[in-house]
Amino acid sequence: MLHTFRYTHPFELESGGALPGFELAYTTAGRLNAARDNAVWICHALTGNAQPQEWWAGLVGPGKLLDPARHFIVCANALGGCYGSTGPLSVHPKTHTPWYHSFPELTNRDMVRAFQLLQKHLDIPRIGLLMGGSLGGQHALEWAVEQPRSVARLVVLASNAWHSPWGIAFNESQRMAIEADVTWQLNSKKAGLQGLKVARTLGVLSYRTYEIYQQRQAEQDPDQLGRYRASAYQQYQGHKLAERFNAYTYYRFSQAMDSHHVGRGRGGAQQALAGVTAKTLAVGIDSDLLFPLQEQEYLVQHIPQARLEVISSLYGHDGFLVEAAPIAAAIQGYFPDFTGVAQAQTEVKV
């Protein structure tokens, strides 16, 4: 069930601006125990939502690694999102019209500080296990740096201490695709949707690998001319996202990802990571083009209690969503006292 947390005070942003309050849409599953130490907080990725049992079905749910019978599982749609949280299509309280382009640029720190207000509202003194992948991994790591005493265990999947020039370049190209859409300048819910489709196809190329396209999208007929499987697949990916997302949130979330740097204002990344007190598992995907293994290796080198687990996958960056079974085994092996005995089932969505 989707709940709504309402913050009714001005919310200052890292940029110097402010929101006149906000709402976060979130879900919970299970119950907080008497010791209040069984909370699992899951941070979603770029186009995710507050329903982790949908996009991480191999890890979350009854009988899975993260089981409501043992854990109190929380997931919130990030500030700026389009799945119930305050975002560009929300109504501005003063103008009584949607924010659209006037919605302010957010950083990951803004989003995490909003999560922390929800944590206080839910009366969770310390999160038993905080985890996320990609953008969600950036959020989880920023949280563990910002409030180290509030996180007991940390799992960062396919993520990094700061967003690389390579990653920023991919995001900028996607934003350029949205800007090239002639409708982008309009104040409309559908503004930039054609550009969003193109942006998504660029994103998918950074998430996947040559090998998985060769395996799934290669032509069986050497005489095939036109109507190629790979072309249809790219069209499908763009159309699918445009049906459930909006260009404004995609644009703002990619900017927030670009802003990610745990060392900003903290004396650099090494000093910031040295302050993490959570027992940490960094999970990397060996074929990840977007967040290569060297980025997870860096985390492990500088976080005091950290281990690296490398997952072999043909799926590239998307392996953190697809390879549920080995990820569950890695988490179970590192945190047996918290996770208990459960088996995850691999669910592949392409």
Description:
The chain is an alpha/beta fold and 350 residues long. It starts with a strand and ends in an 11-residue tail after the last helix. The chain is built from 13 helices and ten strands. It has two domains: 2-163 and 261-339, Rossmann fold (3-Layer(aba) Sandwich), CATH 3.40.50; 167-256, Rna Polymerase Sigma Factor, Chain: A (Orthogonal Bundle). It has helices at 52-55, 108-121, 135-146, 165-179, 193-207, 210-217, 229-244, 247-258, 269-274, 293-302, 319-322, 324-334, 336-339; strands at 2-7, 11-12, 18-19, 22-29, 39-43, 72-76, 129-133, 153-157, 279-285, 306-311.
CATH fold name of the largest domain, please?
Rossmann fold
How many domains is the backbone divided into?
2
Report the end-to-end length measured between terminal Cα atoms.
26 Å
Q: What is the helix fraction of residues, given as a range?
A: 25-40%
Rg to the nearest angstrom? Answer: 20 Å
- The tally of strands reads 10
What CATH architecture label of the largest domain applies? 3-Layer(aba) Sandwich
Strand content: 5-15%
Question: Which strand order spans the largest sheet, edge to edge or round the barrel?
Answer: 1-4-6-5-7-8-9-10
Mean of pLDDT: 96
Which segments are poorly predicted (pLDDT under 50) over 5 or more consecutive residues?
Answer: 341-350
| Sheet having the most strands | 8 strands, mixed
**What is the H/E string?**
EEEEEHEHEHEHHHHHHEHEHHH
CATH superfamily of the largest domain: Alpha/Beta hydrolase fold, catalytic domain
Secondary-structure content class: alpha/beta
Shape designation: globular
> In the CATH hierarchy, what is the class of the largest domain?
Alpha Beta
Number of helices: 13
Subcellular location: Cytoplasm
Catalytic activity: L-homoserine + acetyl-CoA = O-acetyl-L-homoserine + CoA
EC number: 2.3.1.31
Active site: 134, 288, 317
